[in-house]
Structures are given as structure tokens and as C-alpha cells.
Automatic annotation (TrEMBL):
Source organism per UniProt: Niabella ginsenosidivorans
Protein name (record): Uncharacterized protein
Taxonomic placement: Bacteria, Pseudomonadati, Bacteroidota, Chitinophagia, Chitinophagales
SUPFAM superfamilies: AhpD-like (SSF69118)
Gene3D superfamilies registered for this protein in UniProt: AhpD-like (1.20.1290.10)
Domain of life assignment: Bacteria
Signal peptide start-end: 1-24
Keywords: Signal
InterPro entries linked to this entry: AhpD-like
Length: 72
């Protein structure tokens, strides 16, 4: 693997790790929490970025069951 590809994979891993470990819902006075639709979008995005296909399938199904559509 060349250096450029390696750097991209490291950056992708760090971004996915940070995204998956963020506390997206802050119930303090910092603003409104994410609604269910937004929570599913964040989860699907982070699983896609991480390449976690095993959990992505179930998360996509759950998102579709709760009202997400393929277009948005």
C-alpha cells in the first residue's frame, strides 16, 4: 500500500472512531437533542464510513422501519 492510501485509511479510521464515540445527545442547555431520524442518519453514516457492513444492514433496516426513506 502506498503512503497516500495509508494516510487516507488512517484518517478514515480516526474519523469513524471519533464519530462512533461522540455523545450526540446532550440533554443540557446546549441546544436540542437529535430526533430519531437524525440519530439513524448519524449511525448509518458512521457505520458506512467505518465499513462495518455487519451492523450497517441492521441499522439500515431499523432506520427504514422508523420512517427513513432511500432518498432522505
Amino acid at each position: 500500500m502506498n503512503k497516500n492510501k495509508f494516510t487516507k485509511w488512517i484518517l478514515l479510521f480516526v474519523l469513524a472512531f471519533i464519530t462512533m464515540n461522540m455523545n450526540a445527545q446532550n440533554t443540557g442547555n446546549d441546544g436540542p437533542a437529535l430526533n430519531t431520524r437524525q440519530q439513524h442518519i448519524v449511525a448509518i453514516s458512521s457505520l458506512t464510513a467505518a465499513g462495518n457492513l455487519d451492523n450497517l444492514k441492521s441499522c439500515l433496516n431499523t432506520g427504514l422501519d422508523t420512517g427513513l426513506t432511500i432518498t432522505r
